[in-house]
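Memo subject: From amino acid sequence to discrete backbone structure tokens
Action wanted: Derive the backbone structure tokens from the amino acid sequence.
How to read it: Take the token row as a discrete description of the fold.
Attached in line: The record itself begins immediately under this heading.
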Amino acid sequence: MRRIFSMSSLLNKGSIQRRVSKKYLINAIRPYSEDLSSPKSPGPLLQYRKLVEQGRLQHDPYQERVALALENLLGRLEQYEKEMEDYHIKLAEWEKNRETERRKLLMEEAELNHRGDLWTSVNKRKSELLERWSFRRKSEDIEPGVGKWVSYLNREKKLDSLVGRRPTAPPAPKGLYIYGNVGSGKTMLMDMFYSATEGIVKHRQRFHFHEAMLKINEAMHKLWKNQVEEKSIQSSISSWIMNLSFDMKAKEWLAAEERYKQEVQMKNILPAVADKFLVDRQAGERGASILCFDEIQAVDVFAIVALSGIVSRLLSTGTVLVSTSNRAPKDLNQDGMQREIFLKFVNKLEKHCEIILVGSEIDYRRQIAQRSVYKVHYFWPLDGTALKEFEKMWCQVINQAEGEVTSNTVPVMFGRTLEVPQSCNGVARFTFDYLCGRPVGAADYIAVAKSHHTVFISDIPVMSMRIRDKARRFITLIDELYNHHCCLFCSAATSIDDLFQGTEEGTLFDLESFQFETETEGAKLRRDVLAEGSVSLGGAPAGITSMLSGQEEMFAFRRAVSRLIEMQTPLYLEGVRSLHPYFQRKHQSFKNCSYSASTVHHQVSH
């Protein structure tokens, strides 16, 4: 009989009693006990050494080397933040002046066209040569659009001479690309760095691969949708044009030039998405940008093209990148897809990031689980005793949540929603088939993970080739629950180690079958997501079909097993209250209320 500990410390106090043998120490654990109320987090090297001193981590020279590199990067960020603030002030002034001068040039050109149109109407009998210079006339031997392109380029050159070229951003500190085996501590170290940047850098984001790809996809669809909606002349004529004292023809010409500028920008859609990927820069929010990107992968054509366009743009405009992966940059693209684009991406990474290997062969997540006393979050097999314990834990957690169990819906993406059959104050319960047996994907799992700090999943079967599509969804689900630091309870048919080993129906490591199935299933899932969200496929990029290799799947299996093991350890559970978005929102709300109350008190007392 497995021992069951009280969940009250998780839901009410944010800590869990634990006992781990001091003989065996752990290294793949994130700094879960970080106090959210702390005004400034310590640097990654100090965090790492403190955990080693406390006996919670075993010293690892590879990890310490990465922690030192991250500490050095952190030390350069404060000055870089100031430099970027000054740069963005200059950039905003440059953009304002350039737009003012651009409109002046447009108005001058419109005035010339306006006069030329009147002159032509009076002199109808003039030669054909003069008519070619009249308003909105085009030569038949000139390709449509060439005239606008030449006008656009000439206007940009004039603006360069009037306003000067775009200000040059200060040189950014080199970021880090951290790679190594599953469970070697990559994510732990990156998260130590990310927590330490709070209060130093204004614009900071942390994304897992799945979430980043979805955000890129969503942003691209929004841009395409806006472009389609703005094709109407009346709706696209800006107010500044409508207020001019020109006739309607001149205003339509101005509007056409404005639309052409937008079309030129839309041809480079990825840089446009990148500019809004981290932050929407508003007044008073200028400064440096940091992107922490967990599990960089090159699993399909879309991922390669999107990553290349977005990351290259961010690095070129001064964003500092800290990323993790199982592979070195040059080894990301095992299938050789879009090789030219991929090589440019790798060159950009190597130019802007220090490439560091976490060379340990030990999966520290497994080591901690083997030495922990409590292992009560994963109940197996699916027999009477295990199921009884699973139900008992569900009742205990619900009682501590102090609410009524109801069904509700959570927003996903593209206007979709997902129904949660059983939910209570941040606690949710699902069956395996409900989450993994239907055409849902990473967007749905992110929505579940963000909305619920504790998730129960029942009736998890052994993964075999017969249900390989469900197995892949389950891996994605675990990735997102782990990435958002959820507390997970499972009832399963077998132990974690045997979960992905297959049955008599076939092992999961039939690589040829997996590759074929991944191609078809990946395409189907993307179609389902887009269709349900009423988003047309017409504007979507080609070559979006997944082409995961069998070796990539094996990486994913090992990662899922490693994370499932860690998610039942006490040290992981300590961090749920401080790291999960549910509790972070509550903490932020409390801070806002406290600030409002202190402001009112200050105003009243004065």
